Amino acid sequence: MGGDVTAIAAQLDQRGVRHAYVDGGITIQRFLQAGLIQRLIITRVPVLIGAGIPLFGPLLQDIPLRHIATRQYKGGLVQSEYEVAV
Question: Is residue 57 part of a domain?
Fold first, then answer.
């Protein structure tokens, strides 16, 4: 889907969608800034990348998070799950 994130969220809500996977640095930034993300799962892969789009970029304000869980997988992949504190 493309377009304004609030319009996308409204379309998904009308379709009865209650959980959506949002990916991509700019897309995540837009959904965060619109207050449309309630839970984050951040995956870290053991590779340092020299360039790219920052995951969060500049934010208008701090977004407090509550840690839910952290999982470690074979090969070094680590996932941390957070709830956006309201």
Answer: yes
